[in-house]
Amino acid sequence: xxxxxxxxxxxxxxxxxxxxxxxxxxxxxxxxxxxxxxxxxxxxxxxxxxxxxxxxxxxxxxxxxxxxxxxxxxxxxxxxxxxxxxxxxxxxxxxxxxxxxxxxxxxxxxxxxxxxxxxxxxxxxxxxxxxxxxxxxxxxxxxxxxxxxxxxxxxxxxxxxxxxxxxxxxxxxxxxxxxxxxxxxxxxxxxxxxxxxxxxxxxxxxxxxxxxxxxxxxxxxxxxxxxxxxxxxxxxxxxxxxxxxxxxxxxxxxxxxxxxxxxxxxxxxxxxxxxxxxxxxxxxxxxxxxxxxxxxxxxxxxxxxxxxxxxxxxxxxxxxxxxxxxxxxxxxxxxxxxxxxxxxxxxxxxxxxxxxxxxxxxxxxxxxxxxxxxxxxxxxxxxxxxxxxxxxxxxxxxxxxxxxxxxxxxxxxxxxxxxxxxxx
Length: 424
Ligand code: LLP
Fold this sequence. Notes:
The protein folds into 2 domains: 5-32 and 281-408, Lyase, Ornithine Decarboxylase, Chain A, domain 1; 35-277, Alanine racemase (TIM Barrel), CATH 3.20.20. Helix 2 (35-48) packs parallel to helix 9 (253-264). Strand 8 (122-125), helix 6 and strand 9 (145-152) form a beta-alpha-beta unit. By secondary structure, the protein is an alpha/beta fold. The chain is globular, with a radius of gyration of 23 Å. It has helices spanning 19-26, 35-48, 66-74, 84-92, 109-117, 128-141, 176-188, 209-227, 253-264, 277-280, 313-317, 405-408, and strands spanning 5-8, 11-14, 17-18, 30-34, 54-59, 78-81, 100-102, 122-125, 145-152, 174-175, 192-198, 234-236, 270-273, 284-295, 300-304, 323-325, 335-340, 349-356, 363-366, 387-392, 395-400. The chain contains 12 helices and 21 strands. The strands form 3 sheets. Strands 4, 14, 15, 16, 17, 18, 19, 20 and 21 form a 9-stranded mixed beta sheet that branches. An 8-stranded parallel beta barrel has the order 5-6-7-8-9-11-12-13, surrounded by 4 helices. The chain has a 3-stranded antiparallel beta sheet with strand order 1-2-3. Ligand LLP is lined by residues 59, 62, 80, 103, 163, 200, 203-204, 238-241, 274-278, 313, 317, 371-372, 376.
């Protein structure tokens, strides 16, 4: 069987469309996603969970494009959100509010208000102060807020320190030894309804053992709460399953869920997971055109038209992403290139020391760029954000138009237009 993103002959294809055709029609840099791969990943979760009460909440932050959300809505997904913006995106895409969980350490009262009005499934509460605020907000609205409490299990997820979230030194969750007290308090608050327990220990996890250790801790807490008359409805294990960028060997989605289910045993808690990267990471690529080849006695630079503002992961985490020419060249010498963007920072690179046969105007594909690519992009250096397209078999869908100069300055004002003397 052919893979939806692969070279066929000399040309890179996304499903039935060549990357060259997309570059010609939409220009570069452009993010390209395969609908088939998004569906395949989501369905791997879904198929593993048919016999267990469950909710698969796609982590919107991985890629919040409306068309991506639309695909997932059609598959019956729930959503994990971290802001009012993400909530509104999900609702705009037709997502069911009854399948939304709201994560994050800093939900504002106004965000809580909007989420309560929308009747979301659950707030993942991360501190006593947040619990108090949520209770006050829901009291004012005459609502009852469904909550889970996020535990910080203090396990080491062995991932990049910036995306490890379940260690004592991280800002996330409530320490295990403080959580029973907080549940007892929550269960007495009039405008709070205790529903579940959750954790999210980190992202790009390759080893499942720290998660298993966390599940054991969570189940101990569930039992202790039961003894105290607090019965939970669900357990939410967050997201975090890693993908292969280079040679990492994370468990497959099915093995991952199988291990979780076996750890849960005959426990009838509803299982919630919040996968982001493992749904969309390998379903997307970023195509970019080589502008200049600059060879020096020290290094060879391929200067491309995508930069750290389009794809921040290499600059921020020193992440390694595969980079390949979309059309394989024959008869040109392979050389070692640093693939860099036009932004005025030495941290602006997509890859270092890559052995490639390329020439100017060639188009390169940065692979595994579907998650935390477009969603972390910015306008730094006043660069317009890239276009995004979704390939669905023989169809190309423009998921996001390339930004224009007018988009860049939207909401900005020249001084003269905003002169407003303060009244004394
Ligand atoms: N749930 C919560 C509460 C989260 O904080 C996250 C990700 C997820 C679910 C989804 O995790 P995933 O399945 O995608 O690993 N920008 C970084 C990743 C940051 C992840 C933040 N939280 C990167 O590019 O590697």
